[in-house]
Amino acid sequence: MSSTQALLAPSLPSQLINLLAAVMLLIAFAMLAQRRVLTLINLFAVQGLILTASTLLVAWTTSQPHLYWSALITLVLKVLVLPLILHRLIRKLNVKWDVETLIKIPTTMIVGIVLVILSFNLALPISALSGTVARGTLGIAIAIVLLAFLMMITRSKAVPQVIGFLAMENGLFFAATSATYGMPMVVELGIALDVLIGMVILGVFFFQIRERFDSLDIRHLEKLKED
Amino acid sequence: MTTLSGIVLQFFELLLAVLVAPLLTGWVNVCRAWMQNRSAPPVLTPYRVLLKLFTKEPVLAYNASSLFRITPYILFGCMCLAAAIVPTLNINLPINAAADAIALVGVFALARVFMALAAMDIGTAFGTLGARREMMIGFLAEPALLIVLFTSSLISNTTSLSSIVGQMARMDLVIYPSLAFAGVAYTMVSLAENARIPVDNPATHLELTMIHEAMLLEYSGRHLALMEWAASLKLFTYSCMGIALFVPFGISDGDSWAGVLVALTALAFKLALGGSLLALIETMSAKMRIFRAPEFLGTAFILAVLAMLIHLLLETP
C-alpha cells in the first residue's frame, strides 16, 4: 500500500515542513519566556520568516500558486512592516524595559507544556481526516495559537499583549496552511489588512493609554470609576 | 550474546576511557586558552597533575569519618561503570544485558549522593554549600536527562543504550526535529552536570560561586587525584553518550577489530571536535548567578519534553 509507505518514510519536503513547524513551536515558547520587549519583537519577526519559508515549501510541494502570494504577504507584513512599526513604537514610547508578567515564567512554561499536550491531542483526529502534506503540523499550529493566547493573558503591559495577538495570527495562518492549503485569497487579504490597521489603531491607543495613566499597564483600564 | 571477544572489547573500551579521559580535559583546556588568547598549557597537564597528586601523602581532617575516605573510590568506581555502559566503539557490549540508559542515570545519581555526603562529612561551611548546590543542580538536571533518553528510546523502541545506538547508526538519513531538540537539551544538561560555565566554573577556587570545587576542598593526595580523575571520566562519558545518541556514525557493530579501528578514528575526531565546541561555549558565555541555574535547567527540561511530544505528534506513523 502506497499510503502506508508514505507514512513510514516521509518525503524530504514533508520532513522539512515538520522541522520548520517544530522550530516555530520552539519560538512560541521562547516568546513566552522572554523578558525583554525588543527581543520579543525580533522573535516575532523570526517566527514570521519561518512561517514564510514553510508556506513557500508547501506551495512548491503541492504546486498551489496562491500560496506564493500568501507567503509574500507574510514576508512583507510580518517580517518587515509590523516589526518596524513595533520598533518605532517602543522607541517613541520609550518602553524598552523588562516585561512584567502576572505569573512567574517557569509556571507559565509548565502551563504552556500542558497546552501543547492538549492541542496535540485535539489535533490528532482532525489531521487524520485531512490529506495534506503538512497534516501532522496542525497540532503544532493549534499549540502556537494557544501559547500566544497564554502570552496575552500573562502579560500586563500593552506592547507584549499586542505581540501575543500578532503571534496568534501567525498560528492561525499556519493552521490554515497545514490543514487546507491556506484560506481563499480574499479572506487572507482581509486578515492581512485587518492586522495592519489593527496595529496602527493599537499604536494610537498606546499613546492615549500612556497619556491618561502615565503607564502602559493594562490593569489601569479595569477601573471604571475615578477614585 | 556474550563472547570472549565481546568481553575483551568491553575491557579494552573501559581501559581506553579511563586512560583517555584526562586527555580530553586537557584538550578542552588547551582549546579554551587558545580562544581566550592565552598561551595554552601542555595538553598532558592533567596527567602530570594526577601523577603529582598520587605521589603526595593524603591529609585527612581530624573528624573525617570512613565515608569521607571511601568516597573517592566509590566515585571512581561509579564513573568506570558508567564509562563501561556507554557504547563508544562497539555496540555489542556484554554489560548492556545488565544495565540500560536508566541504570546509567542511576549510577550518576549514586556518585552524586556520595560526593555530597562526603562534602558534608567534615562539617566545613564550603563543603555543605557545595553539596547543597550540587544536589539542587542534580535534581533539576536529572529529569531533563531522563526525558532526553526517553525520546531516543521512543524512536528506537528500547531503553538499552547499545540497541538505541545500533538503530540510530543503521537508520536512513531522516530529519528528526525531536532529536535536534533533544540534542540541545542534552548539551545544556551536560554543561550543568560537568560543572562547566555557564553553570559552574571548573577553574575557580575559593569563590562564593563554586559548586564542584567546593566539595573537593578537603581532599588531598591520592583521594583528590581520584576525584579529579572521576570528574574527567564523567566529562568523557557524557561526551561519548552525546556522540553515541546524536552522531553515532562510524561505530562498529561486529566483532572485527578493523571495524573497531575505524570506530576509534571516528571517535577521536568527534571527541576533538566536541571538546573544542565545549571550549567555544565556555568562552562565549558568562557564568550565571546560581539562582539562574533553575531557569537554565528548566529550559533544558522544556526542550526535552517538547522533543518527546514532537516525536509523538510528527514522527509516529
Distance between the termini of chain A: 73 Å
Find the structural class of chain B using helix and strand composition. mainly alpha
Radius of gyration of chain A: 19 Å
Q: Please count the helical segments of chain B.
A: 11
Beta strand count of chain A: 0
Low-confidence parts of chain B = none
From the spread of the alpha carbons, the general shape of chain A counts as globular
Can you tell me the number of structural domains of chain A? 1
Biggest sheet overview of chain A: none
Q: Which structural class matches the secondary elements of chain A?
A: mainly alpha
SSE ordering of chain B: HHHHHHHHHHH
Written as H for each helix and E for each strand, in order along the chain, the element string of chain A is: HHHHHHHH
Helicity range of chain A: over 70%
Please give the radius of gyration of chain B in angstroms.
Answer: 19 Å
Count all strands of chain B and give the number. Answer: 0
Describe the structure.
The complex is a heterodimer of chains A (227) and B (317). Chain A is mainly α and 227 residues long. Chain A has one domain. Helices cover 78% and strands 0% of the residues of chain A. Chain A is globular. The model of chain A is unreliable at 1-8 (pLDDT under 50). By secondary structure, chain B is an all-alpha fold. Chain B has one domain (4-314). Helices cover 71% and strands 0% of the residues of chain B. Chain B has eleven helices and no strands. Chain B has helices at residues 4-35, 45-55, 66-85, 101-121, 125-156, 161-170, 177-193, 212-216, 221-246, 257-284, 293-314. The model of chain B has no long low-confidence stretch (mean pLDDT 89). The interface between A and B is medium-sized, with 31 and 22 residues.
